[in-house]
Amino acid sequence: MKLDLDPASPVPIYLQIVEQVRRLVALGALRPGERLPTVREVAARSRVNRNTAARAYEVLEGQGIVRSRVGQGTFVSEDAPRLDPAARDGALDGALDRLIVEARSLGVPLAELEKRLARRIGAFEKEAKKESAGKEQKR
Amino acid sequence: MKLDLDPASPVPIYLQIVEQVRRLVALGALRPGERLPTVREVAARSRVNRNTAARAYEVLEGQGIVRSRVGQGTFVSEDAPRLDPAARDGALDGALDRLIVEARSLGVPLAELEKRLARRIGAFEKEAKKESAGKEQKR
Amino acid sequence: MKLDLDPASPVPIYLQIVEQVRRLVALGALRPGERLPTVREVAARSRVNRNTAARAYEVLEGQGIVRSRVGQGTFVSEDAPRLDPAARDGALDGALDRLIVEARSLGVPLAELEKRLARRIGAFEKEAKKESAGKEQKR
Amino acid sequence: MKLDLDPASPVPIYLQIVEQVRRLVALGALRPGERLPTVREVAARSRVNRNTAARAYEVLEGQGIVRSRVGQGTFVSEDAPRLDPAARDGALDGALDRLIVEARSLGVPLAELEKRLARRIGAFEKEAKKESAGKEQKR
DNA sequence: GTGGTCTAGACCACG
DNA sequence: GTGGTCTAGACCACG
Q1: Per the CB < 8 Å rule, is C78 touching B8?
Q2: Which of A21, A61, A105, A129 has the highest number of chain B CBs within 10 A, making it the mutation to test binding with B?
């Protein structure tokens, strides 16, 4: 598991780890039930404190993305966390509205925004497929 | 200029002000060249610390959204902030990727995500038209 | 806010703080919008590390019980967190089943268990009323 | 003896074993004097570490639920563990209070809580009867 | 002055 | 060896 952390970013390191693990899970690069590197490994490889790595895993567990078992390690959860549908929709619409404002401020026409989303989804699905193929081959 | 601030939000108040001013500019409710209320006015009306309002304007100026002229006030910039196109695209793609990961984590199919974006854009444009009509009438 | 912490307990200190704050909120001794003592105050009065107190508040925020605002303090949330009803029911039934087994193992007949629950609810409501009266008087 | 263990649960496996054995005893599926499977059998059937199974039995013996006789095996205790009545009541009231706070935090009215407990007790007793009938038949 | 992040380092619980 | 808790102490962001 390769993490790309920027200590100079305003985003806290532990949240950078959270975001990247979520992305790997969304891509299928990390699959349900799969074991993540240990807290100590993440800390050593990414040169952060063990507590910082542990905190990222703790947040991921709070979000239902992973499950930690003492003495065993940390694993990708088997099923997506359940969420109140209204809360889910609210969260998503909020994210969409922020995106729209961001695009307008950058001078991107909204029609183009839709096209770009379609394109990024395409890129995402392609990468997910690649990850998936890589996984199959390892079997 | 009406701001809807939520002191209970995890987003810092000065950033909420920044986001909302950007939104008003994006909507056309604040037009290029238009004068913004003074820092004191914002602070008084929104009941925030004067430093908080000042900080928000500082950030907006740094982003090229507004321009302060000593002794005259703060004005919406005449032209959209010129951003290195590569930087602009990078920022937008980053935002899109975060959105995609969020949607996947929430269990929202990516096809639905596209539809929802289209719907939110529709809502945004409707509101922008209303704001615009209001402006015309004031002339 | 008085906390009764036992460092010798198998329950981690930060979780003891979490449980007690939740109890005070449930009782109405801490009301929506009310400000909690600062992290530093809790740490000093309870003689725990500042990080430990901060962690408790962080967990409470994750549970939607309180809201923290940098520079302002920590406040009881205005409304109860929304939860998927199925998840809510599942959590409650699990708690009830554990209670039943515990009672049987202790040799408590299940009919008595019901009576005891009724009695504890009575005691809880009485204490809640007292807290409420105390609050009114302070106004 | 069939155990339903969830390695993904935050509850340690040895405690899951403890809880389930207690549950089986409470249900009457395991009767006073009855012999439990050996530590090795439990470990093999449930695919847990032998130390884990041994630890669970150790805890059960400490609680007075089972009794180990060297060279003979482990047996369900003849009589319910004698607990200082004050300690028993304290333990039960603590559990009830935690339940009440949890219900309040979830927004469950306390009157409903009483009804739900009655319902779960009904379900528990029905299952206990079934277990009991099964035992009779085996004789 | 408030909460948030991070490090260094210790000790503990579980398997 | 794994994750979890806690302390001590530093520095930062927000208001």
Answers
A1: yes
A2: A105
